[in-house]
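Inputs:
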Amino acid sequence: MDGRPIPLVWHAGPELTSTARRSQSPSAWSVGPLGHWSPKTIFTVVTAFVVATTTFAFYFVNDSVAVDFSTTVVWAFNYRNVSAPALDKPLAAINLPRAKTTTSGNDTGGYCPPLKNISNLNKSNVLHLEETSMDTTESLVFGDMKDKILHLVEGGNRHLRAPSLQTTSTSSYDGLLDSLIPLGATVGNYSYLPGGHWRPRHCTPRWKVAIIIPYRHREYHLPILLRHLVPMLKRQLLQFAIYVVNQENDLPFNRATLMNVGFLESLNFSKWDCFVLHDVDHVPLSDLNNYGCTNMPKRMLSGSDRWNNKIPYRTFFGAVTGMTRENIRTINGFPNVYWGWGGEDDEIWRRVRAHHIRIIKTKGPTHFYKVIAHHHDSAPKNKDRKKLLRTFKSRFNHDGLNNIKYARLRIELHALYTNISVDIQKL
Ligand code: UDP
Ligand code: BGC
Ligand code: MN
């Protein structure tokens, strides 16, 4: 789909029904008054009616609530008030600026080919999900350039600690990527900058993608994910960087606020076109799973081995999702009020739909993920999550990017990613 207009998808409404009706032979419609119907016909009609209404009700309810049946009715009504029109809206045209040359490198070619024309992509990679160290992953990615790269990264961190960059004002970090250019290197056909920023040299990338990973104490997972993700993004010929947003306090984990922080902080490095919000324990199987910015907002995952290669419910919007910069700004980012496990992704789905933006739901094996064995407990469940979900409508204008407060504790460049450590507090 790269670079091509996105087809408009319309829901089957009355028109389709009448088309279907037209294709019926007239005799099928020449049913007389009720009294003339045979018991068999009445039975068939009543059964069909019950099946149709039940199916419709289930579909509607499932779309609206997704998770918890006990709140079905309230949610169904809330949801219908806000976002029913979204069902009939065509896709908004995605008209993003092309990636600009912000890092060092000689462009000798035009735009990089769209995904479908890239030849060395693997339909299904063999994934190594066994424990590995960051050191091993760095060796795999950089080969004999590793020592040189680590040296440049050290220089990058010294540069970040320079007095001119030591201020609490975010704006002082603007264009941070450009300031790292003197510490760049060439790795194969890529330009590399400390902090794991990559840009193809032989062609102009179509998209600039920031990968945002909400994170705390998952040292076991990160090298396994990066071992697969970095080479895959390079094969897709994207300009990209990986931002690990590390919650550094003892409050319950807050995935959505960390994603807000990742969005804002990554934009201080460069004006990314789009963002992939990526759980650290999900590894994509196929190089054809497009991490470029077309068709967003997008549920990148069509199934994972955890759920038998399915998604848990129709409106699931967790794990790995893609959104453009404009999408995220439009919905005022992500809710800051979800502390602990669950619910925040369900609210993000609702925010997007409430703004009449269509969500692309990927399908098939191209979008399967493997989940790395946990070796940890999930964050404690957020007991308020269902109540919060019910009130999303009254909150989304003032809960998100426009009210977030956080202390940026540290930005550290690593060879394969940039770490942003933050202390986030309840507002
Ligand atoms: N996460 C984290 N540390 C935590 C809890 C969550 O890094 O203590 C991040 C991590 O990226 C993880 C995501 O949030 O993949 C979702 O959390 P988790 O995997 O616990 O959710 P589950 O898969 O159990 O729904
Ligand atoms: C939670 C979501 C979670 C999903 C799948 C739902 O009940 O609200 O946050 O992603 O389950 O685990
Ligand atoms: Mn997980």
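Residues 39-65 form the longest helix (27 residues). Flag for discussion at group meeting.
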